[in-house]
Task: inverse folding
C-alpha cells in the first residue's frame, strides 16, 4: 500500500486536496473517481508505506487520543470489522494528520505480518498497552482488552486533570495578585512618593516600609528575577538526579495532609494498572513489572520492586506492600481479602475506584478552602498598600486645615 497526495475538482468545481491510500496509482484514481472527484494531479508520497512509517515513528498519540483510538477499535472490531478495516476507518476519521499517520503505520505493519501488539510497540505506545493487547490477541479477547484499556487511560487522565485543577486555579489567583502588587509597587508608589517628598511631613511607618520595598524592587528587581530563574533551572536539573529525587519524594510523603494525598494517588494509579493487567490475562510477575512503572515517587517504586521479588519467591503481595508506612491501611486490607478470595484483580480495581473518589473529594475540599483564603490574603496585601498611600494623604489634609 502507498500513500498518494492528490489535487482534484469536486462536482461543484471546487478544488480539493488530500491524501488517499491505495496499492497502485490506478486504484487510487479509481477511489477518487468513486468519490465524484476529477483528478488534476496525483503524486506518490510514501512508497510502500516505508517513508510514512519513518515519519510516524516520530509521532505519538497523547493520552486522550490513545483512549479515543482504543474505544473506536473496540467498537469497530465488535461490529465485525477485520483489524485492518477497523484501522483504515479510524484513520479516515482522524482529526489531524499526525494521528492519521500513526494509525496508517499500524495498519501497514499488520498487513506486513506484524501483530497489533508489535505494531503498537514500534509506534512507542505505553508498555502496559502493548502487553495487554498481546494478552488479548493470544486469548481472542482483543475487544474486551481494548475497552478496559480505554477505561484505564480515561481514569488516569481524569485523575491527572483533577490534580491539575487543584493546583492551577490557586496558582493563577496567586500569580495575578502578585502581578497587581508588583505593578503598584513599581509604578504607582514611586509617583506618590514624589508628592510626599515635597510635603516634608513625617510619614507613617507603614508608608516608609512600602517606600523602602518599592525602592528595593526598582533597584534590584532584575537581579531578583535572574536569581529566581536560576533557582527554577537549578531545581529542575537537581531533581533529575535519582538521589535528590528520592530525598524530595520522602519529604513529600511526610508532609501533613499532602503526604497522605500523594500516597493515595500513587496507590490508585498502581492498583488500577495492576488490576487491569491481571484481568486481561497478563501473568502476575509480568503485570507487577509493568505496573511498577506507574509509580512516580521513588520510595514507592523501590517498594514495588521489593514486592515483586517477594511475590516471585512465593510471598504475598498484600504483606509486601503493607509493610511500608506510607501505604494506606485500607490498601493492605482489601488486597489481603482479594488474595484470599482469589479475586485480586477485581479487588485492585475497586481499591483504585475508592482512592480516586477519596482524592477527588479531598481536592474539592482543598479548592473550597484555598479560594477564599487566597482572596483574603490578596485583599489584605492590597489593602495594606492602599493604607500606606492614603494615610499620609489624610495627614496632609489635616495640616492644610
Result:
Amino acid at each position: 500500500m502507498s500513500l498518494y497526495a492528490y489535487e482534484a475538482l469536486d462536482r461543484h468545481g471546487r478544488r480539493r486536496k488530500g491524501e488517499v491510500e491505495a496499492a497502485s496509482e490506478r486504484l487510487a484514481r479509481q477511489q477518487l473517481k468513486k468519490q465524484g472527484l476529477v483528478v488534476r494531479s496525483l503524486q506518490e508520497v510514501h512508497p510502500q508505506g516505508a517513508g510514512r512509517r519513518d515519519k510516524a515513528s516520530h509521532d505519538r498519540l497523547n493520552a486522550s487520543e490513545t483512549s479515543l483510538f482504543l474505544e473506536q477499535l473496540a467498537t469497530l472490531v465488535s461490529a465485525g470489522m477485520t483489524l485492518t478495516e477497523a484501522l483504515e476507518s479510524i484513520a479516515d476519521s482522524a482529526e489531524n494528520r499526525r494521528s492519521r499517520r500513526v494509525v496508517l503505520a499500524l495498519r501497514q505493519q499488520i498487513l506486513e505480518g506484524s501483530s497489533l501488539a508489535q505494531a503498537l510497540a514500534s509506534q512507542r505506545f505505553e508498555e502496559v498497552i502493548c502487553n495487554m493487547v498481546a494478552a488479548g490477541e493470544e486469548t481472542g479477547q482483543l475487544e474486551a482488552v481494548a475497552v478496559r484499556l480505554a477505561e484505564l487511560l480515561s481514569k488516569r487522565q481524569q485523575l491527572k486533570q483533577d490534580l491539575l485543577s487543584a493546583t492551577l486555579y490557586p496558582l493563577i489567583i496567586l500569580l495575578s495578585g502578585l502581578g497587581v502588587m508588583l505593578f503598584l509597587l513599581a509604578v504607582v508608589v514611586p509617583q506618590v512618593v514624589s508628592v510626599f517628598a515635597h510635603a516634608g511631613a513625617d510619614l507613617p511607618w507603614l508608608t516608609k516600609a512600602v517606600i523602602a520595598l518599592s525602592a528595593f524592587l526598582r533597584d534590584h528587581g532584575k537581579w531578583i528575577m535572574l536569581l529566581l530563574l536560576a533557582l527554577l533551572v537549578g531545581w529542575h536539573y537537581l531533581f533529575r538526579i535519582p538521589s535528590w529525587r528520592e530525598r524530595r519524594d520522602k519529604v513529600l510523603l511526610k508532609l501533613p495532609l499532602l503526604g497522605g494525598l500523594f500516597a493515595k494517588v500513587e496507590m490508585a494509579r498502581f492498583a488500577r494498572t495492576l488490576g487491569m493487567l491481571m484481568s486481561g490475562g497478563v501473568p502476575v510477575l509480568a503485570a507487577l513489572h509493568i505496573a511498577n512503572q506507574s509509580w512516580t515517587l521513588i520510595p514507592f517504586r523501590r517498594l514495588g520492586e521489593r514486592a515483586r521479588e517477594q511475590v516471585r519467591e512465593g510471598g504475598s503481595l498484600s504483606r509486601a506492600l503493607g509493610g511500608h508506612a506510607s501505604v494506606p491501611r485500607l490498601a493492605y486490607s482489601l488486597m489481603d481479602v482479594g488474595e484470599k478470595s482469589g479475586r485480586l484483580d477485581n479487588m485492585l480495581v475497586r481499591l483504585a475506584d475508592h482512592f480516586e473518589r477519596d482524592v477527588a473529594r479531598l481536592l474539592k475540599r482543598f479548592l473550597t478552602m484555598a479560594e477564599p483564603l487566597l482572596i483574603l490574603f490578596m485583599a489584605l496585601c492590597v489593602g495594606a498598600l492602599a493604607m500606606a498611600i492614603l494615610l499620609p494623604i489624610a495627614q496632609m489634609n489635616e495640616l492644610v486645615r
